[in-house]
Specification:
There is one protein chain. By secondary structure, this protein is α/β, with parallel strands linked by helices. The protein folds into two domains: 3-242, Aspartate Aminotransferase, domain 2; 245-377, Aspartate Aminotransferase, domain 1. It has 14 helices and 14 strands. It has helices at 3-8, 50-63, 74-82, 99-109, 124-130, 153-162, 175-178, 213-226, 232-242, 245-264, 283-289, 304-313, 343-349, 365-377, and strands at residues 33-35, 38-39, 67-71, 90-94, 115-119, 135-141, 166-170, 188-192, 206-210, 269-273, 296-301, 318-319, 329-331, 355-359. The protein has a seven-stranded mixed sheet with strand order 3-9-8-7-6-4-5, sandwiched between helices. Helix 2 (50-63) packs parallel to helix 9 (232-242), helix 3 (74-82) packs parallel to helix 4 (99-109) and helix 12 crosses helix 14 (365-377). The chain binds pyridoxal-5'-phosphate. The site of pyridoxal-5'-phosphate has 15 residues, from helix 3 and helix 4.
Length: 379
Amino acid sequence: MKIQTRIAQVGVGFDRQFGAVSVPIYQNATFRHTALGKNLGYDYSRTGNPTRRALEDGIAGLEGGCRGFAYASGMAAITSILLLFRQGDHLVVSDDLYGGTYRLLVQVFERCGVRTSFVDTSDLDQLEQAMEERTRAVLIETPTNPLMRITDLARAAAIARRHGSLTIVDNTFLTPYFQRPLDRGADLVLHSGTKYLGGHNDLVAGLVVAKEPELAERIALLQNAAGAVLGPMDSWLLTRGIKTLALRMERHEQNALRIAQWLVRQPEVGRVYYPGLPEHRGHQVCRAQATGFGGMISFTVADFPLAERILERLTLITFAESLGGVETLITHPARQTHSDIPESKRLELGITDNLLRLSVGIEDPDDLIADLEQAIRGR
Ligand SMILES: *Cc1c(COP(=O)(O)O)cnc(C)c1O
């Protein structure tokens, strides 16, 4: 079946007892044993919970993997995956990436002896050169956050495989509606479910999908052992959000393209980073490996004072961290999401003080453009 159908049908048919169409919320910690060593499929909600299971099966199906896992946040999902590695292991990671992932790798896992090289994975020569004897995984974001760089997933995964390393893709920005990394050679895909999958800025969650059963077994052990699982209520809310993903992503993208095209024409705006623009460096690769370009745009303005004034003057667009919800949000990456990346590194990447990042919502694009216009012009 087509992806739109599978998205709308997530969780349907799960309740065999009463036929509830919406998955019931099993707000439950423990389950009765029917005999010694026997139960009805569940024994304790950290290990497994039916509401969470419906979500986990749903995301596994959408990403084309064998098994899904739900966590209390995107960072909990990434942490759980990183527990696959041990002292002396080495990772190669996209250098322009979510600030929280950078912080986790540098301030937590480095201390445990897991080393990371940050490289521009959109440049496959750089990726190849960064691979070491002890490299165990390549972790990719595409498009990257906030500069929207595009990595060729199939070719990057081939390089990783040749070096005996796993390929892990953070698919938060495009979601399985637009991009399915497991079909392009990745071993694991992860999400901040807080963003497009949830879609309503009303929950924090993380998801992981494994392609093959052997790796899924190891992830299942880590999920249960470390225990940062998603609760039943939030699992239900996330399942509910996913059902409208296809409609929302189409609208996010239409709006983002309109706004990116408008931004390009404004004299006060410098660079516009949106993979859907034909002049974007990764446009062709993104077009070839994804069915859409998503709803995230970054752009620069003349200087920091103007960036600051725009944030103060916007009235419809909310100045708030996060992304992927139905409401349009704007952030200042250098001072907010990416403030844990050292300044020299930030500037080297292009995350400057005059850069703003827009998560385009599903409102009427004319209203969004009018708000941006008055904020940029100061009228
Ligand atoms: C938000 C985000 C995360 C972290 O997810 P949380 O749910 O906030 O813990 C990881 N990766 C990307 C790309 C994100 O946008």
